Amino acid sequence: MTTITRILFFACVSLLTGNVIKAQDQDLLKLVDSSKGTEPAWAAAAFKSTRVINGQSMELLGKGVLDVRILHRFGLINDGAKELFGLDQASMRIGLDYGITSNLTVGAGRSTLNKELDGFVKWRPIRQSVNGGSPVSVIWVSGVTVHTMPWADTTRKNKFSSRVAYYHEVIIGRKFSNAFSLQLSPIFVHRNLVTNADDENNTWALGIGGRLKLSKRTAFVVDYHPILSGREPGTKDPLSVGFDIETGGHVFQLHFSNSTGMNEKAFLTGTYDDFWKGDIRFGFNLSRVFQVGKKH
Amino acid sequence: MIKKITVVLTGTILFLGCVNDKEEILYGNSCDGPTPSFAAVVNPIIETNCAIPDCHAPGSSNGPGALTSYAQIKNVAGEIKSAVVSRFMPKDRTLTESQIKAIRCWVDAGAPNN
């Protein structure tokens, strides 16, 4: 474990522990409050969707809500008119997320890139409250990805574990006002198989996600994941900017990004384009929610 | 029932044993023997598969740009290696194992103009 990994690990633990202690403190206060008949008022809709753009947001689905998600990432805009500014090439992910409780969401999907399956569990132990509770929400996300590409070399003894990668993430986010939300999310990705002897199986990154509301139905969002250690050689930090547009039960997220991957492992270890050199792709996330289970 | 499935799924994700395999060590893809020649081996692979129209031909601004001279290729050798080894590149084409190994070993040897 490198020094930076250690520092990050302890920073995360301290931050998380600090919040838990604070939350416990506040939970006690909440009990006192509740004895007076005051119900906690949760901060709601910090983000329009359960994803900032690529990364998970501090939002979860309501109980019994099914979210059908269709994501597209196109080719490079600077490929020019002959490629219709990248629209001739498309990579997609289709997925389903489900809210088991208001604090527990599970999801699964499949991406065309590397024919990759992914699944995750997202749990919110601490929820931001606007009447004296926790000032932040804390969310834990754990996920697994499995690529299903044919083996590149069938003559050697291939292992199933080589297809698998894991990620774990803590999201600490706050809705500062109706117009502005910000979250930080240290994230750890483990790939069971890497290519070179000097490549690292573990990658650490810090997710930074922000939302600025522009009107009742639109918001500007930024999703940035600087890689802190264990960078896959040649890869760049994924950066996406875009707009959320809410239309009834749909949320459209239209964005510009340098990454093609649509799960955490894919975009943190497979973003080869440089945003600052203009290697940018257009993409969209389409989310449609259905109340399929009981609300309470 | 759904909660039980979630608990099992979470446990699986959290506690499944991770392995730290490296392809190069696992399968012995070491670069024994002489360094592949840039002129005779590496450049022809790049000319045929990369420096082609709409990809990395002269004037290209895709990714690292044109890959038509030793200087251009040497300049982004690491990037080429990782894109090729991960099979991210070339798009719509497939390199053979020996071609990938040639590029990898040439880059690992310092991308010489040999």
Secondary structure layout:
The complex is a heterodimer of chains A (296) and B (114).
Chain A: H1 3-35, E1 65-76, E2 90-101, E3 104-111, E4 116-126, E5 137-147, E6 164-175, E7 180-191, E8 193-194, E9 202-213, E10 218-224, E11 227-229, E12 239-247, E13 250-257, H2 264-269, E14 281-291
Antiparallel strand pairs in A: 1-2, 1-14, 2-3, 3-4, 4-5, 5-6, 6-7, 7-9, 9-10, 9-11, 10-12, 12-13, 13-14
Chain B: H1 2-15, E1 21-22, H2 23-26, H3 38-49, H4 70-75, H5 77-85, H6 97-108
Helix pairs in contact in B: 3-6, 5-6
Overall description:
- The complex is a heterodimer of chains A (296) and B (114).
- Chain A is mainly β.
- Chain A has 2 helices and 14 strands, in the order H-E-E-E-E-E-E-E-E-E-E-E-E-E-H-E.
- Chain A has helices at residues 3-35, 264-269, and strands at 65-76, 90-101, 104-111, 116-126, 137-147, 164-175, 180-191, 193-194, 202-213, 218-224, 227-229, 239-247, 250-257, 281-291.
- A 12-stranded antiparallel β-barrel of chain A has the order 1-2-3-4-5-6-7-9-10-12-13-14.
- In chain A, a hairpin with a 4-residue loop joins strand 3 (104-111) and strand 4.
- Chain B is mostly helical.
- Chain B has one domain (21-108).
- Chain B is 50% helix and 2% strand.
- In chain B, helix 3 packs across helix 6 (97-108) and helix 5 runs antiparallel to helix 6.
- Chain B starts with a helix and ends in a 6-residue tail after the last helix.
- At the A-B interface, strand 4, strand 5, strand 6 and strand 8 of A face helix 1, strand 1, helix 2 and helix 5 of B.
- Strand 8 of chain A pairs parallel with strand 1 of chain B, so a sheet runs across the interface.
Helix content of chain A: 10-25%
Low-confidence stretches of chain B: none
- The rounded distance between the terminal residues' Cα atoms of chain B is 65 Å
Poorly predicted runs of 5 or more residues of chain A: 10-23
**What is the CATH architecture descriptor of chain A?**
Beta Barrel
CATH topology of chain A: Porin
Q: Tell me the number of structural domains of chain B.
A: 1
Major sheet characteristics of chain B = none
CATH superfamily label of chain A = monomeric porin ompg
What is the succession of H and E elements of chain A?
Answer: HEEEEEEEEEEEEEHE
- Percent strand of chain B equals under 5%
Largest sheet of chain A: 12 strands, antiparallel, barrel
